[in-house]
Structure formats: C-alpha cells, structure tokens
Amino acid sequence: MITAKASADSAVPSVPGAAVATGVPEPEEPAWPWKDAPIRTLVQRIHQLQAERAQAFRRLEEGHLQYQRSGPPYDFPRYRSTVHEVTQAFAAASREVLAVEAELAGPRGQPLLASHVRSLQQLEQTRLATVALLQLMGAPELSEQENTLEMRQLKMKVIKTMEAISEVLQDLRFDAESVE
Fold first, then answer.
1. For 74-95, how does the pLDDT look when each residue is reduced to its tens digit (9 = 90+)?
2. 176, exposed or middle or buried, with CB in 10 Å at 0-12, 13-18, 19+?
3. Residue 55 CB-half CA count within 13 A
4. Rg (CA), the chain
5. What is the pLDDT of residues 16-34, one digit of tens each?
6. DSSP notation for 120-159
7. By the 8 A CB rule, do 100 and 42 touch?
8. 3-class secondary structure for 33-100?
C-alpha cells in the first residue's frame, strides 16, 4: 500500500494539480539562487561545480583503490557506497550546470556561453564513462583478462578529455569577460 508520505517522497515527479485530488500539498520548486546573478557569477559557479566534480573524481579513484586493496575477499559494499555517493554528487552538479546552460541560452541570450557549458557537460559525461570503464577493466575479478593496450588507450582518452575540459573552461572565462 502506498501511503501519502511514501507518495510524496517518491522520486517520480507528481502530476501538476494532483495535490487537489490527493489532499497532499505539492512541494514548492525552490528558487534558483543564480537567477539574477551577473554572468561573471554564473561562470564562477561553473568553475566551482568543476572543482566539486574534480573532488568527486578523486573520491571515486580513492574508493576504487581501496576496493582493489581490500581483498580477497573484496569489500564491494563499501565501493558500491562510494560509487553511489559520487553518482549523487555528479548528478547534483550536472543539474546545476544544465540550469546555468538554460539560463545562458534563454533569458541571458548568450548562446556562445551556453554552448561552452553544453560542451563542458558532454566532456564530463565522456570522462565519467571512460573512468568507469577503466575501473571496471581494472577490477580484481577481471585482472587476468586485463588488456593493457586498451587500458592505455582509455587512460589517454581521459587525459585528452581533461585537456579539452580545461580548454572549454578557458574559452568560457575568456568569452564571458568579453560579454561584460
């Protein structure tokens, strides 16, 4: 049986107007704190989010190294917990980056800056997918199947992606300065 509390706590978005039918008030959409911020502040926020992503990547790497050193038997529940925490951090950063992109593309009328933010988001997705694949390939359970050439290529892909991220961030900062 689904209770009103369980329904309210559900991750599935509610249907607008459902509050009237169920008697449960709809949660208010929190105000986005960067709505009226100057473009310079939005760009600074993107850089802060990138720092948070870098920290999340470090936590993911540390968690993977701990997992590799933990066994046998390997402490998979701990690693899974780390991956879950990092996934939540990435998702939160991505939501905010997408909100900044929408703000720049829409109300601010800055399609060039929005395209930089979109590129950044795509590069981060590539980086995360590549790092995840590298970790999977480096799992102790698969160590005898290790393909060093493929792993080297993936590591190079991560490095090239990180270089591209740095370039996009630099372009974003430069182009934002020329707008103001």
1. 888 999 999 999 999 999 999 9
2. buried
3. 10
4. 21
5. 344 444 555 555 555 667 7
6. HHHHHHHHHHHHHHHHHHT-GGGGGG--HHHHHHHHHHHH
7. yes
8. CCCCCCHHHHHHHHHHHHHHHHHHHHHHHHHHHHHHHCCCCCCHHHHHHHHHHHHHHHHHHHHHHHHH
